[in-house]
Design a protein that fits this description.
Layout lengths: L4 E6 L4 H4 L1 H14 L2 E5 L14 H12 L3 E5 L3 E3 L16 E5 L5 E9 L2 H12 L16 H7 L6 E3 L16 E3 L9 H25 L3 H19 L7
Parallel strand pairs: 1-2, 1-3, 5-7
Antiparallel strand pairs: 3-6, 4-8, 5-6
């Protein structure tokens, strides 16, 4: 049933204002195919800073465990075009996770489609539990969850590589379904780049200040905050639980 498909995005720390146009495109896409749509815009400022991207994994897992059959996660800076087809167009038997590769020729988790299956839940849990484990240099992206997603996706038989048009991070000429202006070639605007630099700077300062005042390891602090913010968001947004 289509109403058991969730389109999910997270826009915190100012992203909810910076990417209003993109978020509206997510809603239009969901309405077109009768999907449930939820843009998470609160808490307005995440104590996780730029590491709030880990929330995509914990919230996707919670939504699937609640009964959603499919969850499509879209980064706040992705624009869904009018030609984007129904998700059923890509479904394959025995395949439960779908991603496209970005400009580095590695999986980009800015567009992540998950189908409800025990293997999906186990995979999400494995990645989340490895949050503070160092990934191999060939998989590292410097911050966030994407390096872990890359590492844990290698040679996994139930993961499918989507066509680039589902998550286009570098080809301006491509007739794409979803255009992603992330940290790569698509993000060229001065104001956009300046905004992201400010977010990264403030995030680092907040994290350092919080750790110093609490007198505990950043690992312990972040584990607590990820769990707490996940629960807070689930309490704010009832759509994340399939009723």
């Amino acid at each position: 049933m289509q109403h058991k498909t969730l389109i999910l995005s997270i826009a915190l720390n100012g992203y909810q204002w910076m990417y209003q146009r993109e978020l509206k495109s997510h809603r239009r896409y969901a309405q077109k195919y009768g999907y449930v749509h939820q843009a998470v815009t609160r808490p307005f400022v995440s104590a996780l800073g730029v590491e709030c991207c880990w929330l995509k994994l914990t919230l996707m897992r919670a939504a699937l465990l609640s009964g959603y059959e499919n969850v499509l996660f879209l980064d706040a800076d992705t624009m869904v075009n009018e030609n984007c087809p129904d998700l059923t167009d890509v479904f394959q038997t025995g395949k439960y996770l779908y991603m496209a590769k970005g400009y580095s020729n590695r999986f980009n988790s800015g567009v992540l489609l998950a189908r409800n299956n025990v293997k999906t839940i186990e995979w999400l849990t494995q990645v989340i539990d490895a949050q503070f484990d160092k990934v191999q240099s060939e998989n590292d992206v410097g911050w966030g969850e994407n390096g872990h997603v890359i590492e844990f996706s290698k040679e996994v038989p139930f993961i499918v590589e989507l066509e680039q048009k589902w998550n286009n991070t570098f080809d301006y000429q491509l007739t794409d379904y979803i255009r992603h202006r992330n940290c790569g070639p698509m993000r060229t605007g001065f104001l956009n780049n300046f905004f992201h630099k400010v977010v990264f700077f403030l995030s680092a300062r907040l994290s350092a200040f919080g750790n110093k005042n609490r007198g505990i390891l950043s690992k312990e602090l972040d584990e607590d905050i990820l769990s707490r913010e996940t629960n807070v968001i689930l309490s704010i947004y009832p759509k994340l639980a399939c009723l």
